[in-house]
Amino acid sequence: MSTSDLLLLGIVSFVLIDFSVGMVLDYLNERQKEQPLSAEGAEIFNPEEYAKSMAYGTAKYRFEMLTNVIGTVVILAAIILGWFVWLDAQLRDRFSNNLLITVLFIGILIVISTVTNLPSSYYSTFVIEEKFGFNKSTKKLFFQDSVKQFLISLALGLPVIYAVAWIYQELQNQFWIVAWVLFVVISLFMFIYGTRIFLPMFNKLKPLPDGELRSAVEDYCQTQGFPLSKLYEMDASKRSTKLNAFFSGMGKVKIIGLYDTLIEKLTVEETVAVLAHEVGHYKRKHVYTMFIFSNVQTLVILALMGWLLGNPNLSKALGSDTPSFHLSMLAFFLLFTPVSTVLGLINNSFSRHNEYQADQYSIDTYPGAREHMHDALKKLSRESLSNLNPHPVYVAVHYSHPPILERLANLKQV
Ligand SMILES: [Zn+2]
Fold first, then answer.
1. Ligand 1 center to 43 CA (angstroms)
2. Does residue 414 surpass a pLDDT of 80?
């Protein structure tokens, strides 16, 4: 067996293993959730709401299975039937500039994946979310959002691809060091300005209006040295009824956003407790650690790419005798699937740990936060029909936040 055949076998196996593991996890999670309502669970849901939460989980599970099967069949067909190589050959017939070919190749893949994802995203919004009463988005807003997301991914993705392909063309195996510096600069920019630039394209952010909540928030922020000018209310209610809050930014450019749905459904004290949790993310430097961690990961990935991309067998594994940057990169990322699964596990575990720290911060800095946070989280879960009994392995792989009952139990202890 030649090296390229072996690589192809590796790629196909990894796609199949990834698919199978995903399906088994989904199945375990689906089975795990069917349990009688516990005493802790009864603090969140009445029996009717609990049944509804399980039905919501099942609807999402079935749809996930279907999209997984279709997605895997398509990617396997593209690999085995040589669709990627065909596209590459078509571009080579028409253009001679390698960088242009790479940018067009990736651009076409972005177009195809956007178009093919549209039906599933439409179904999920207007059938599943609609059925369970979450959806507030109109068809017009949905298509506006989709077009904006598409244009943003082209506007950000293609120049970066061009730059990296150019660096690779100039430096070959040594490209990874320079490419890493470029990624550090880009990710620094995105960590600092990403939300500030892109969120207003989708949502209106306005300073928290005067009133009882603002006064309570002002009092809290003063004790924490957090500038109130960075606090916004976001019109999330135009898309969904679900509640949330977030922290984003670095250094002087930082914002905390509260969904209008959260402000509407939570009491003043509960809202301040949630806000204190978000301030906790900032004070405990979670953004910095995430930033460093993600850049270390990028460094490892790029170093591996520097080592492997020059090998013509990567492009050959997908069926092309003409080695190219984009085909080799595609083969690399397909082979990289197991490593990215492990990285995902580490990232999520880290993120869940940070959530506990931020809860702790809220309790330590806002009097009564233990009860208020408790009540706020219960409302958040009720309003989003959270799964009370996710499977532990599913949690490890997919959850960036601790499961609700574990988080509530932790709040009682700390
Ligand atoms: Zn958090």
1. 22
2. no
